[in-house]
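Same chain as my last thread, 246 residues:
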Amino acid sequence: MYARLRSLNYPVKLYIFLALAVCSVISTLWIVNVRLPSGDRPYFFIWWNMMLAWIPMLLTLLLDVIHCSWRRGTRTFLLWVIGAGWLFFYPNTPYLITDLLHVFSRYPFLGEHHFWGNPYFWNHALGMLLVAVLGLTMGFVSLESVRQLVQCARGGIVSWLFMLAVLLLSSLGIYIGRFFRGNTWDIVSAPSQLYIQVSSIWADSLQRTHFVEFSGMVFVILLVSYISTMCVIWMGNSRRDDRYYW
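reply #2:
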């Protein structure tokens, strides 16, 4: 099992997850301790959103363990079950980018001209931006790890199509979560309500246009960010190969 885990970039991958866990604590502590002039903490909900974002991260590690330790028949079954759970929870990670809106909904703009010149505003904005960037980073680490498992099983082309499908479905899930306040567990606990909400999108042309445009913009953001991240990884791998060659 240990040799198979090494083929999946362990223990380096474990170090990456631990580093992201530390970054999650730092960024969450920053934003939850930002206060309004009244003394209230307007972003305390980030604790919950960050916990949801870490569910697919932990499922990613579980998928690696199953891939390396279980027998073929049982392994295939468990990979499909846990993989489905990972897919359902995955949008919770990039969903963190939409929490940026809370800065503009909860920061006291009224009566303050040129609010962007106030360092107090940037404490709100940069703290939430850090959470958003971390959400994207965690999402791409998780997605790339699962994509590599798909590549081992089905080849490179299928794995890249899988990546595109996950990002597209995540964009749709982020819309449902942000505008319908849907949760991942609604798939099991309230499937009929979720179906009604999704069906209502196509009944209203204005909402349908909003759905397509918003989901499309989120998909472009996720795809461009993912490719940018992969470019850094590929550059690092290229330099490592050059050092080995020389």
